[in-house]
Amino acid sequence: MSEITPDLVRHLAGLARILVSDEEVEQFTKQLSLIADSVAHVSKAIDADTPSTSHPIAMANVFREDVVEPSLSQAEALSGAPDSAEGRFKVNAILDEE
Amino acid sequence: MAKAELMNYEQALEQFEVVIGLEVHVELNTNTKMFCGCKNEFGNEPNTNVCPICIALPGALPAVNKTAVESSIKIGLALGCEIAPTGRFARKNYFYPDLAKNFQTSQYDEPIAFEGSLDVEVPSGKVHTVLIERAHMEEDAGKLTHIGGSTGRIQGAEYSLVDYNRAGVPLVEIVTKPVYGAGAEAPELAAAYVRSIREIVKGLGVSDARMERGNVRCDANVSLRKHGAEKLGTRTETKNVNSLRSIERAVRYEIQRQAHILANGGTIIQETRHWHEDKGATSAGRPKSDADDYRYFPEPDLVPVQPSRELIEALRATLPEKPADRRKRLAGEWGFSELEFRDVVNADLLDQIEETVTAGAKPQAARKWWMGELARIANESEEGAVPNITPAQVAELAKLIEDGKINDRLAREVLGYVLAGEGSPAEIVAARGLEVVSDDGALIAAIEAALASQPDVIPAIREGRMQAAGQVIGAVMKAMAGSADAARVRELLIEMANK
Amino acid sequence: MTDLIRKSASELAELISKGEVSSVEVTRAHLDRSAAVDGAVHSYLYQNPEASLIAAAEVDRARAAGEITSPLAGVPIAVKDNLTTTDAPTTSGSKILQGWVPPYDATVVKKLRAAGMPILGKTNLDEFAMGSSTEFSAYGPSKNPWDLTRIPGGSGGGSSSVVSSFQAPLAIGSDTGGSIRFPGAVTGTVGTKPTYGAVSRYGLIALASSLDQIGPVARNVLDTAMLQDVIAGHDPHDSTSLPESLGSMTAAALKQDVKGMRIGVIKQLSGEGFQPGVAARFKESLNLLAAAGAEIVEVDCPSFEYAIAAYYLILPAEASSNLAKFDSVRFGMRVEPNENATIERVMAATREAGFGPEVKRRIILGTYALSSGSYDKFYGAALKVRTLIQRDFDAAFAKADVLVSPTAPTTAFKFGDKIDDPLAMYLNDIATIPANLAGIPGMSVPNGLADEDGLPVGIQLLAPAREDARLYQVGGWLEKAHEEIWGKRMIDFAPELEVK
């Protein structure tokens, strides 16, 4: 009864930018089916009127004053980068055309 | 990029109804970024206005800029929107190298402002009411530079470099509802709408509103449907059309392109398109697809924004005059003809002229300079940019003429030196000795010299043939290299003839 | 010096403050202990003994100069490796972060440094804190000092094993669904998950932002309280940080009084179906409380039935988004595919190689829970269940001051027992998860050994949001009562580790 199919797993892995091997697809399909089935009953517990809780402790209006704080130096910012050039993070060519 | 076939514009409008929708991104001019204390500043060394938050290092958390929230509320109020009692940030999830967290912190189903409207006047003088769906807060992305390949563009690049100085700069995105009924004026309406938004945010002081710097950016949605059809047609979204002129051109182009496809039995693909100013055309970008599943959910690292009534009313009290009201007021104060005033609005020169008048110039003089000589210079320049002169300098120039210190010809010469950066008009006149000669003695000497070779002139004037004076005036001006006050020469000549 | 390592943090602090022992000596004793036993226990992912000793020497100097007055000044501490430190690599147990040295300190780390607490090293965890056993650490599991073939709990198995093997008197943990309390229960130690927002999360590598909370780990309740007092407090860098102080936990721990308190037993977590030794110890603890004048009441929390399901939707959803930043651009690992190495493919290949199977599983599950068409029935429904669980707690706390349950259904299980069965692994958290969903504080305190395996068992205490002090008050009493019955501290039943 689970909707988890190998194609769905591939699609989700694509959205999450993770390459998956065929074996992983097979394994994840099985495991996620079980998990998805076991969590599916959450929708039975609630109705449309039940409010959502996205923050465990209700708070509002937490702001920062618009005051400049020290930034990292360029060297610090780039210190963990796998590759950089001209003070910038260097990445491989982009496929997408945007 | 093959240029698409286009239908003749009038024909397209005969066959189809145009529906547009506009998404305008306004960069706020806060001191710091939306979610961290890094400077919100343009033009610094790459990756120097960055911190663990805006380059998304593991463990860093956002904190909301209070001023950015207040600016967003002001924009909402200026657009006649409701301000949400509870606004919430949400994560928009997608991967792109300029988006450090690989999600954009934005707002989704609970934007800070919603349901507004804006009256927009198009060049014909007609006023369209554009309904605003929402205005929400979000953050800008970093800047990618594509290296290698032939064009510096993304296609064919060998690699790209990322600078996150702009990442996290506060944005307000203003989204209209579908705009119907603009007909042939849809392109002009799109541009006029963006101009109005720009005037509003500039007037509010919440954005520098410089389109050439990307402070105001527009995505234009266009769809067509048969007249009388109920269902909206498939729309395309043309991205980042970054000048008023290109907005107008891009919308017009999309109308013609889509009309041609539809009239020939084709279908419009829902996609992102890119405007190419040089080619005057849009090209297909990414089609909308499953990959656009942004998986929005409430941002768990931030708490809701719940502006109090008192805060909203306090911010409302700071709002400046509405653009439409301002125009009405200025039109009254300046006394321009309707046509003159509309031309000024369409040339986007209201601000300059108002500032010039404030600096002491007469309205007509200010209009004459900005719409005349300065517009001509702007048109001739490559960028079409506003010339390098301040309204105060224009006012000074106008004053020099009014006081008879210089004449029109000299003024144009002075203007050239101002644009070249030599200083203010008065300084230049003094430094270069350009003041008109109003010393009667010198003028009389020059007139007598001219009369010596044209003895017929005095009798002619005495007989009432005033046109004869022109020859002498011309000779005097020539002899004095243009620095004579022509009106005074004429007066003196007539005096001499009547003696 | 070996007796130094068996002393509690409060005892060490007192010795240091009296000048009877220096921070350098205490720190060295613990470093020596690690050199002797950590090869077997594997609590640490990183230690730099020289740097720890330099920090201790600086504390001794500053203390002598009167510059540091913190109650725990000089007492060394181990820090879970999902907190950023500028002087040590921070991996969160993942290969994708191997060798990354952050350019900033977590707020909690800053507080430890300011309090004069030398850092002994960074402790092991399941990758990105996803797990209950440390078997999902990319750097190999930590062992339970009670039985090296058994798990030390997770995700904070490095922190639980480091204090239970006497390599550190104190440790920092993080608890998203029980990662402090479950390891505490199975190693005979104490751990608290404070009220959500009581301790700043700035610099904690996020698993699930709305569930994560940093907390103290120690061998007794007083030490745990003292450590919470050091690390708690408002932080403007964490927008979910509570603005108010929750008072002194140390004072509460010293109260040790339960007379007249209403202790609620949650019907759904009363020990039924749990391992017999776990259930038996729980009953005994209730009897002790009743005998001391506490009133035992039963409370009904029907929505707890849905807690695990809601948790395993909310956590993966938030995690899938939090872990998107691991993309090979600004930090961490980069893997280039052999052909067509566009940035998109580099990102995907890096995440394939850098994340372990549990992380990938949860990211994909979370992506599913948030995707269009699934949101309402999964993530959206889970947020609503969260409201129901909060309401259950509200009703329960109307009847009781503190709620109690066994911390975990079982004692420490063997390595490999559940690693291939994600659902079985998730059930370990059945008793601990509701507190994270509701944001309330919870603590695990040892309450004896299970008859069938002689392994430690923990009792969980829960209090309303911001009432962390109640946990320390009741926990302190329970600890004392159990020590009186068993004749010594639970941790002293642990077998001696073989010293290298």
Structural notes for this entry:
The complex is a heterotrimer of chains A (98), B (499) and C (500). Chain A contains four helices and three strands; from the N terminus they run H-H-H-E-H-E-E. Chain A has helices spanning 6-15, 22-39, 42-45, 74-78, and strands at 63-64, 84-85, 88-92. Chain A has a two-stranded antiparallel sheet with strand order 2-3. The mean pLDDT of chain A is 91. Chain B has 499 residues and is an alpha+beta fold. Chain B has three domains: 9-315, no CATH class; 321-432, no CATH class; 440-498, Arc Repressor Mutant, subunit A (Orthogonal Bundle), CATH 1.10.10. Chain B is 38% helix and 19% strand. Chain B contains 16 helices and 15 strands. Chain B has helices at residues 9-15, 66-78, 186-204, 244-263, 309-317, 323-334, 338-346, 350-358, 363-380, 391-402, 408-419, 425-432, 440-453, 457-462, 469-479, 486-498; strands spanning 16-27, 64-65, 82-83, 90-93, 103-106, 113-121, 127-139, 143-147, 159-163, 170-176, 216-226, 236-241, 271-276, 281-287, 297-298. In chain B, the strands form three sheets. In chain B, strands 3-6-7-10-1-11-12-13-14 form a nine-stranded mixed sheet. In chain B, helix 3 runs antiparallel to helix 4 and helix 8 (350-358) packs across helix 9. The N and C termini of chain B lie far apart (78 Å). In chain B, 45% of the residues are buried. The model of chain B has no long low-confidence stretch (mean pLDDT 90). Chain C has 500 residues and is α/β, with parallel strands linked by helices. Helices cover 41% and strands 12% of the residues of chain C. Chain C has helices at 2-6, 9-18, 23-41, 49-64, 107-114, 157-164, 181-187, 221-231, 249-255, 276-291, 307-322, 343-354, 357-370, 376-399, 422-427, 433-438, 468-486; strands spanning 44-46, 77-80, 119-123, 170-175, 190-193, 213-218, 262-266, 295-299, 402-406, 442-449, 456-462. In chain C, helix 9 (249-255) packs parallel to helix 17. Chain C is globular, with a radius of gyration of 21 Å. The model of chain C has no long low-confidence stretch (mean pLDDT 96). Chains A and C meet through helix 1, helix 2, helix 3 and strand 3 of A and helix 11, helix 12, helix 13, helix 14 and helix 16 of C. Strand 3 (88-92) of chain A pairs antiparallel with strand 9 (159-163) of chain B, so a sheet runs across the interface.
